Fold this sequence. Notes:
Chain B: InterPro entries: ABC_transporter_permease (IPR051393), MetI-like (IPR000515), MetI-like_sf (IPR035906). Chain B is mainly alpha-helical.
Amino acid sequence: MSITLRNVRKDYDAQTEVLKDISVKVETGEFFVIVGPSGCGKSTLLRMIAGLTPITAGEVSIDETVVNDLPPKARKLTMVFQNYALFPFMNVWDNVAFGLKARKMDQADVKQRVDEALKMVNLTELAKRKPRELSGGQRQRVALARAVASDAKICLMDEPLSNLDAQLRIKMRQEIYALQRKLGLTLVYVTHDQVEAMTMADHIMVLNDKHVQQIGTPSDIYQNPANDFVAKFFGTPQINILNAHRSQTDNHVLNVSSDLEIALDEEVPAENVKIGIRPDDMKVEATESVEANATVKNTEFLGDETIIYATLNSGEDIHVVVPGQVNYRIFQPIKVSADSNLMFFDTEGNRMNISKEAYVHA
Amino acid sequence: MLKSPAQSTPTTPLSVEKTKSEIADQEAKFTLNAKDKYFAWAFLGPSLLILGVFIFYPMVKTLYLSLFLTNTVGKTTVFVGLSNYINLLTSADYLSSLGVTLFYVFAVTIITIALGLVLANLASKRLPGIGIFRTLFSATMGVSVSVAAIFWLFIFNPSTGFLSLASTWLHLPQIPWLTDPTAAMWAVIVTTVWMNLGFTFLILLGAMTSVPTTLYEAANIEGASSRFQFFHITIPSISPTLFFVSIITLIESFKSFGLIDLMTKGGPTNATNMLVYRIYKDAFYSGNYAQASAESIILTIIIALFTLLQFKVLEKRVNY
Amino acid sequence: MDIITKPKLSRRIWDYALLTILAVVVLAPFLIGLWTSFLPTMQIAKGNFLSTQVSFQNYIDAFTQTPILRYLGNSLVISTATMIAQLIFCSMSAYAFVFLKFKGRKFLFGLFLATMMLPFEAEIIPNFQTVKALGLLNTYSVMVIPFLTSAFGVFMLRQSFMQMPIELKEAADIEGLGHFQFYWKMVLPYNRIPLMTLGAYSFLGAWNQYLWPMLTTFSNDFRPVQNGLRQLQSEETFNDWGMIQATAAIVVIPTLIVLFIGQHYFKSGVNEGAVK
């Protein structure tokens, strides 16, 4: 089952706009991730698809049928919540059976579906436990089992992993992905975590400041971010965004500061630009203070690589990732350089030198 | 160490929990279910009916009655405006009732709270077997008004009572507990305090045991005496609860009726003739419904003021 | 609250001594009452407080010569009915205030809150006239109907219903539960503890009613225990202290047992409803 949003808008009242003009199509069987910082309206968007929150304008369709006025139960979908929404007074089995019983499904059918769902998420042994007797990961699995047991083919998930610890998150990520593929669910998954988005999604929608920033595949979004927000949102450590201008003497030379110049194959597209350079596309060398264009602020050794935090002589902060272990003192002068693998943004932060169509598709 | 940007990437944002108010707000704007209003009537109807008939209507009716003269079956005869109130507030008799009530109310509240604090402070110590003492101290909660009255009537009984016997053994002068005006007032106060003590103790104990122990640990490291700790840590920490129980005790004492009726019947010589007892006697003994209504309104105003005070403070607590 | 640093032994002994003395003082009226309930009235009248003629005779007399069991039965009926009614009606109202969106919600809630300011004691005159006109005098109903709901109960339950995660309601919406189903299957079981607390409060509240039953009942068939004890105590032939104490003990012992079992709920209820 596919989901289509056409020019969907949400206002809480005349003054507070929450979401502006959202249009997207989620294909049948697709793992679709909505990602953005907290407060960007991503949970509201999910609740609008579920029918829990009414939309102010626009159209929500499921399988090409407009469902704007349908109550949640008629939309044939399931939802997994951040806090799992388990009923504390029911055991695991009853929690999973709850939705089926509420829909007055036949007893034998309920039993079969619940047992199967519990088996699929490895909870068969814990069926008689109450939620408070379960660990975080097990509770998460109960919530998943509910979605599995339902025959609805659309599943909505609202930050389902954010209450789990880091290790468990990786494990559950894989389990959710496997379930989605196995059951052929159309899954809309809301998260603030770029790693979850990158690792699971078929398509990602990046939401910020009421607007869709970009919709695309994970690699699209990483390699061709539509603007500096998207560029900064994906990739750890964050991309360096620096102010730069075209050299007055050579159109192919970019001046980041008077002592950091980058020679390019292409022409610099405007006089004043912002550039984005991933931290591993920069180089650092120790040098005499005369040649130095930056000073080390701090270094972090991560085992297989080292992050160097430094301040350019122009005052801008940068960070650089270099392989292996390197030893720099704090305040040591260094020379930073970059190769030509960089992105241009205009002073507003919008990506330059790339056609719109290249990234707005989904 | 400098804060590394790696730690502030979107992988670990500061707040991911949706705030309650944010969602509650979403919910409040929820308009899909227009049928809610019919459900609202179904769910609220019974309560509204009861409150309407037995709380709102009688309040209006009482106010109405208080502006008239009434005959012995409570029918209004002549409109007299505020003169029932003026008569009351200029009558030495009523003012003395008011004074007696105020004395009783404040004595009961102060003594109950003070004793409650002493008991709760002792019982909040972490000692083996403290649970038994906590249970014993809260025991008076289970005592209803007539049982308390019977227990204490025996204790105060002038001829065969426990206090009279004890005075004989100890060769102390006999106090005519229930026949001397001052002594009778104190007898009622003592009994009320005793009845209230269990509840007050339990609430204060709950508040005291939830004060973070780290505060006391810090104070101990600083070498603060336990007396200092009590007044500078315990009392400020439990002040909202302290305020709450004080107001509750105050309001409940204003409404005292049962003990008065059982122990003194307002006497001797009106020494314990408090507001509610007066209303009862003026209405149902003397048949002076108009005056009793005016007294009811005055009582309502007093209680409403204290309740409002409580709401105000409570609101601050809820919102902070 | 003292830091656990092995308090000095003398300090401990002092604490226990103080606790014991205070416990004896607080419990003295019980102990005196209980002790005299085992003594023959003759001995009490003679001031022979330490008599050794201990017996259950007073209890036997209380059960056989007074309607104390009837009074207890009446109170049990009235209190149970009040409790059940308040649990239902208060929870329904609280549900409406938390989960239903309708015009005038704030106003109505304000109205409910306002009733907490109006003392029932100040409204006995019209209320007496009302129940008289309805022909309810001297029935069980007269002691239950005015207390079918309570603003305090609504307020307290509203506070705890608001603590429910909104996702539970959303999950129920997705499964298509109507309001009655959600109320019955989710809200009530989820809030068992506050409901038990309210149950305890409303039961004890009804049990301790004094003024209203005194005005509206005048036969032992309906008289609840509080007024029953008053009746016994004021009857002229009844100057039998031993038996009076026995009746008081009969009344107080079950409440004490219930209280000790239910103590936890009282405490949490007050904290929920008021101090939070």
